[in-house]
Each structure stands twice: as C-alpha cells, then as structure tokens.
Write a structure and sequence with these properties.
The chain is mainly alpha-helical. Helix content is 80%, strand content 0%.
C-alpha cells in the first residue's frame, strides 16, 4: 500500500495559523480546511470500502481456484478413461461451443459493418 499519511482529520481540524497584519482570513482558512476534512474522510471511506471488496474478491478467487483444481482433476480422470457416452457428450459440447462462437464472430462482424456504413 501507499505510505503513511502525514495528516489525519483531527490534525487538520486542530491546525491554527498565525495571523499577521496582512495574513489570511481565518474564516476562509477554516472553511477551506472543512472541505479538506470532508474530502479526506471520503477518501478514507473509499479506501475501507475498496479494501473490503479486495478481501471479498480474494476469498472468491481462492474458492474458484479450489473448484478449478477439483474440476481439472476430474477432467484428467475422465480423459484417461472416457466411456463412449462421455465421448459423444464431449462432441455435442464441442459442437455447441463452436455454434456459439460462430454466432458471436458473425454477429460482431455484422455489427462492425453496420457501424462503418
């Protein structure tokens, strides 16, 4: 992750500026710092939300990897000793996949031709 932040909400809120004869207007500085605090809080909330999503996706990814390993093992076992029915089912599955692929390719080709006209 990125490095540690230099400021937190309380530090920004408690910051006081020296006022000189030609210094900044304290009300304007306070108003601006209020905006900074709001943005800072929004960023912290976004970071927490994204970290939560990352954790959820990592759990999902680990689960899917485990399922993939299981399916690959089953597939290897079936491939090493397929029955005639399994061979026929595999052929039907391949034909279905080819049909879907042809539909996508031909469909995309028609879409791109229509866009150029």
């Amino acid at each position: 992750m990125a490095g540690k932040l230099n400021l937190d909400i309380q530090t920004i809120l408690d910051k006081e500026f020296n006022i000189d004869f030609k210094g900044y207007n304290a009300t304007e500085v306070d108003g601006f710092l209020d905006l900074v605090i709001q943005d800072y809080q929004t960023n912290l909330e976004n970071i927490q939300e994204l970290n939560s999503k990352i954790s959820e996706l990592e759990r999902t990814n680990a689960s899917l990897r485990a399922k993939l390993i299981e399916v690959e093992g089953r597939t290897r076992a079936l491939e090493s000793n397929p029955t005639p029915a399994q061979k026929g089912a595999a052929n039907v599955d391949i034909l279905k996949r080819l049909s879907r692929l042809e539909e996508q390719v031909l469909g995309q080709g028609n879409d791109s031709q229509n866009k150029h006209q």
